[in-house]
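Same chain as my last thread, 124 residues:
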Amino acid sequence: MRFKPGKAAMVAATALSTAACAGKSDQIAASFVSPSLYQGLSCQQLAVEAQSVANRAAAAAVAQDKKASNDAVAVGVGAVLFWPALFFIKGDGAQAAEVARLKGEMQAIEQANMQKNCNIRFAR
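reply #2:
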């Protein structure tokens, strides 16, 4: 099977743009955050911090998932209808880094919780 030059370029552009798409929040790995940051907190303070970080993480996940959906739409439109739409793909950036950091903070708070025997329950 032989591609026409224009078609080959379109396939290559689509493949590259798909690789640049923003990932869903559940696919982003947590960044390391040291649990020692939370060692000085009481169990009550730790619970308040856990709730605050969980709220910010949820908001960041929604924003990241919206970004990933927008990128997927741009790839679909660009591949099928209008290739300049591929330039609107943003990929992972500061939002993904925020999701990773907040996931890391939650893990650090959970570790501090276990080390201090606070018995805070974390939803999954």
